[in-house]
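Take a record:
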Amino acid sequence: MVTRIYDRGMLMEDGRWAEVNKIYKKLRQPSPSFHFELPHEVFVEKRYDMVYLGRGGRSPIPPFDMELLSPGRTFIEEIGKEVVIEEMNRNNFRNLKEPSNIAFIDCESLQFPLKMRNFRPGDRFHPLGVKGTQKLKDFFIDHKVPKFERPRVPLLVSGEMIAWIAGYRIDERVKVTERTKKIIKITVG
């Protein structure tokens, strides 16, 4: 780890080194993740054990809460993703390992209309395969999702229940079982 940055006596506070000093100070803090912008559309991100330096501005994601067409296609402008909902018959379903952007959910366990929104403080859900509920904040920490990325993760909401953290896991209460008759296939891409 770098402990001192200098250039032949040039002070860190010199205009050219002020930004380097900011990066150095942030890296020395115990925070597991951060994101900040530098001049000339350069950014620095720390994601737990990785540090990225990149170009291009990143605008913050505003809160969104959108009703989904079911079945149908809905574009969520805030995150630039399309949600596709299809109905399936249980007979056409095979429980194969699908990509993380696809979820199969028991239709009868849902309340319509379905909505897609982003993270809110205090959110909880019941992760598939886990006993009891968990705070989404804790789920994101366990899965090493940085704070600045959490507003970008779409959540499928059925009534008051978070049915799916898109890209991660469905809720235990909406899983497909032997008693399931009708399945909803949801793709976020």
About this structure: The two ends are 38 Å apart (CA to CA).
